[in-house]
Each structure stands twice: as C-alpha cells, then as structure tokens.
Write a structure and sequence with these properties.
Layout (H helix, E strand, L loop, with lengths): L2 E5 L5 H11 L6 H8 L5 E8 L2 E11 L2 E9 L8 H15 L4 E7 L3 H9 L3 E10 L4 E8 L2
Parallel strand pairs: 4-5
Antiparallel strand pairs: 1-2, 2-3, 3-4, 5-7, 6-7
The chain binds coenzyme A.
C-alpha cells in the first residue's frame, strides 16, 4: 500500500487526537494540536496516511537550530512496517531545510521499540532523567542526533 507523508493540517486534527489517545497515557488534546498549527515557527508536525486512514504522526518543537522530536505514534496494526522510520526521516529532512542541526528526544527507559527506532535513525543516549514520566513513573533516556 502507498504511504503519503505530509504536514499536519486542520483536517487531520480529529484523527490525530484519536491516535494520540490510543498510544499515550497522557495524550495531547485536539486543542493542543490545533494550537501547534497556529505556531508554525515553533511546531512542525507530519502525518502519514495509507488509503484514507491516518496511520502515524510525529512532530518537532523547534528552538533556534535545535528541535525536540515529540508525539511519535503509529497505529498498532500498522507497526513494524517501517512507517515510523520513513515519517521521522522525512520530518527531519524538513527540519534540516528549516535550519535545524541537532535533534533531541526523551523516551521511556523501558520502551525498547522506540529506542531501537531512534538508534536506527542515528540517535545516541546521552543521559537519563530519573522519574521523568508519570502514569507509570519511569526514567527517561535523553537521546541526541547531532549534525
Ligand atoms: C515506537 C513506534 C513509533 C515504532 O513505529 P514502527 O512504525 O513500528 O517502527 P518501524 O517499523 O519504522 O521500525 C523501525 C525500527 O525501529 C525498531 N523497532 C520498531 N518496533 C520494534 C519492536 N517492536 N521491537 C524492537 N525494535 C523495534 C527496529 O530497529 C526497526 O527497524 P527494523 O525493522 O529494521 O528492525 C511504535 O511502536 C509506536 O507507535 N509505539 C507506541 C507509541 C510510542 O511508544 N512512541 C514513542 C514515544 S518516545
């Protein structure tokens, strides 16, 4: 099946909030995504569609030449097909074109699937933030991909 990756837009908001709620214990609301669309200098989100279904999303929060990678989520039935890898590759290419040089993110210490994905994309663990997460409490790995 063909995958289409493009910037998030108003028409995606409902499906994006639904996917977020499916994947995280403290999800962003539809309103939070809507506000991000109003601040394109700071936020850059991409979505991935297969047929007419939103199957994945991920975003950047940008500050000068650095960006935090956030809200990386793929619908459970579409995982392990390379969608997150393709989506993040394209998102960071867009970030690079906007002048982003270094990317960072936090990931739950026990989330092996996500940490392996980020390592495959060139991220390296540079630190641990103790008890960073709630619901459940868990350490965060701080990962960086530097230019
Ligand atoms: C983590 C997540 C985004 C991965 O999405 P995905 O589309 O399945 O990932 P991909 O198919 O692109 O996988 C790319 C690489 O990631 C790693 N990976 C992905 N899923 C994995 C798993 N279940 N176990 C181990 N490694 C995994 C592998 O290295 C894989 O490369 P490979 O296929 O050559 O082995 C997805 O599992 C998800 O949405 N999880 C719930 C939300 C979440 O945890 N988000 C991250 C928060 S920091």
């Amino acid at each position: 099946m063909e995958i289409e990756i493009r910037p998030m837009a108003e028409m995606d908001l409902e499906a994006s909030a639904g996917l977020e709620a499916m994947c995280f214990s403290t999800p962003w609301s539809l309103q939070a995504f809507r506000e991000s669309l109003d601040k394109p200098d700071i936020y850059l989100f991409h979505v991935a569609y297969m047929e007419n279904e939103l199957v994945a999303q991920a975003g950047l929060i940008m500050s000068f030449d650095e960006a935090d990678v956030v809200n990386v989520a793929v619908k459970p039935e579409y995982r392990k097909q390379g969608i997150a890898y393709d989506l993040l590759t394209e998102l960071m290419q867009t970030g690079n074109a906007r002048g982003i040089k270094d990317y960072t993110l936090e990931v739950r210490a026990g989330n092996r699937a996500a940490a392996a994905l980020y390592e495959k994309l060139g991220f390296k663990t540079e630190g641990i933030r103790k008890n960073f997460y709630r619901e459940p409490v868990e350490d965060a790995l701080i990962m960086w991909k530097r230019s």
